[in-house]
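Notes from the 1:1 (GR / supervisor)

We went over the backlog. Supervisor wanted to see one worked example end to end before approving the batch request, so GR pasted a single chain during the call. The sequence is below; no edits were made to it. Supervisor asked that the structure be written out right there so they could see what the output format looks like.
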Amino acid sequence: MTERSIYVTEVDMARLRALLESTRASGWRDREHLQALENELDQAQVVPPEAIPGDVVTMNSRVRVSDLTAGRQHTISIVFPSDANADDGKVSIVAPLGTALLGYRAGTTVQWTVPAGPRSLRIDEILYQPEAAGHDHR
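Structure output shown during the call:
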């Protein structure tokens, strides 16, 4: 498997590491999803929030994506588990899709797996990124 390099802000990294620790301590069932997120974070290039490129998916970003497998477009936000809401397009970072998108740039195609099998998703556009908008989301 090829290692992929992603960008993560220092603020997001600290919050995501804390999330991993707290969910691990509480005996959360979806260990494979936690491990996938941890593997991504271990490969990340960590940068200050003001240094993150504006075309990178960060926490609380809203992005337009194309599901190349299904031939559909969606607008989704990558959020912490407590804010996840499928009806509003808010995808948890610990869901396979959230983990697959974090840290990648617009124009990138990522692979992720759903119960029906592997999917290809292209990040078409970053519609909102807190760091680019000057919003502090600590």
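Supervisor's comment: DSSP finds three helices and seven strands in the chain.
Batch request approved.
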